[in-house]
Design goal:
single chain; mainly alpha; Tetracycline Repressor, domain 2; 2 domains; 72% helix; globular; binds protoporphyrin IX containing FE; binds farnesyl diphosphate; UbiA_prenyltransferase; Protoheme IX farnesyltransferase; transmembrane
């Protein structure tokens, strides 16, 4: 469906295609979110039937996508102003805001309902809370209100492994809290590195991201500070039942590299960054994604080595 408000001088948007609706669900970011949820489920000490595992991961994926659609519905005005997001389905007129809202709400309800059926009440409750946290607390409130938006709002992105863990165990454990902490503390360096080289976008859109409000010096300091706190939190799972020597050895290298990147960002200023077009910040942002992905690959590898994760022995109750 297209928006009728386009004037004759504007290139009319084309009709929406299936891909536009998929784009509403923020698939590129959400694939890592879904992977962390899957690892939370598999690393848990209670084995799950593959049918339940697949069904519940699908529910979490749909719920994550739904929260992305709700975010795009609410943020359409901001997205229209920023170069990175101006071509999204709503600002480009291919999908209407009402459609995005309807899709976001419908998929949220369906995902939580089916996670309750295939999983349990704790997992479904956590998924509902996570969708609410991203769509309402982060998008509708914090994002436009405070430079601490992504620190507090980052909690939404940290819940998925806890949801996966809750599917398997029916509860919360120290290990799932550590997985939460890993993502929670990783989010500020991940995002602020990007905000440094996308500062103009956020300034134009009047979004109070840290570099806009407090300046780039403070942002560089905060990236290093959060990385210093992140490193011990990222190594801690090695000493629990989900970790082991493999996790520790590889994570130590990854964390040394992350710390080195944060240090390089900290010790330079905007003139140096402008000279190489934010090459260090861009590299650090790219590496942040690999960094988080590999930590969860390590948790998966440790689970495979322990022989936990899936079992055909417990036939799913729901069937
Ligand atoms: C409040 C928390 C977060 C903020 C503000 C944030 C912000 C961003 C932004 C603005 C981008 C660029 C996206 C684009 O090019 O459209 C990005 C990319 C990305 N983020 Fe985050 N992020 C957050 C949390 C997370 C979490 C929790 C994950 C996964 C666990 C994640 C995974 C990714 C990935 C995989 C990409 C690259 C997407 C691509 O391939 O283009 N982010 N993030
Ligand atoms: C299971 C479940 C519900 C998971 C949700 C996970 C979650 C909250 C991920 C958030 C990651 C994200 C896309 C942040 C972007 O911030 P932004 O929206 O300010 O970025 P933008 O400018 O790209 O829109």
């Amino acid at each position: 469906m297209t928006d009728a408000s386009w004037s004759e001088t504007t290139t009319p948007p084309r009709e929406a295609q299936f891909g536009d609706y998929v784009e509403l669900l923020k698939p590129r970011v959400m694939r890592l979110v879904i992977f962390t949820a899957a690892v939370g489920l598999i690393a848990a000490p209670v084995a799950v039937h593959p049918v339940i595992a697949v069904a519940t991961i699908l529910c979490i994926a749909v719920g994550a996508g739904a929260s992305g659609a709700l975010n795009m519905w609410w943020d359409a005005d901001i997205d229209a102003v920023m170069g990175r997001t101006a071509k999204r389905p709503i600002p480009s007129g291919r999908v209407t805001a009402d459609e995005a809202l309807a899709i976001g709400l419908a998929l949220s309800v369906l995902s939580v309902m089916f996670l309750f059926l295939f999983g349990n009440a704790v997992a479904a409750g956590l998924l509902a809370f996570t969708i609410f946290f991203y769509a309402v607390i982060y998008s509708m409130w914090l994002k436009r209100a405070t430079p601490q938006n992504i620190v507090i709002g980052g909690a939404a992105g940290a819940f998925p492994p806890m949801i996966g863990w809750a599917v398997a165990t029916g509860g919360v454990g120290i290990e799932s809290v550590l997985m939460f902490a890993l993502i929670f503390l990783w989010t500020p360096p991940h995002f602020w590195a990007l905000a440094l080289f996308r500062n103009d976008d956020y300034t134009n859109a009047a979004v109070p991201m840290l570099p806009v409000v407090a300046g780039t010096r403070v942002t560089r300091n905060q990236i290093l500070l959060y990385t210093l706190i992140l490193v011990p939190a990222a190594l801690a799972p090695a000493f629990t039942q989900v970790g082991g020597p493999l996790y520790f050895a590889v994570a130590a290298v990854l964390n040394a590299q992350f710390l080195w990147g944060a240090w390089r960002i900290w010790r330079r200023d905007d003139a140096a960054a402008a000279a190489d077009r934010f090459a260090v910040e861009k590299k650090f942002f790219g590496f942040s994604i690999l960094y988080l992905f590999l930590h969860f690959v390590l948790l998966l590898a440790e689970a495979v080595l322990r022989g936990v994760g899936l079992t055909l022995e417990t036939w799913p109750v729901v069937l």
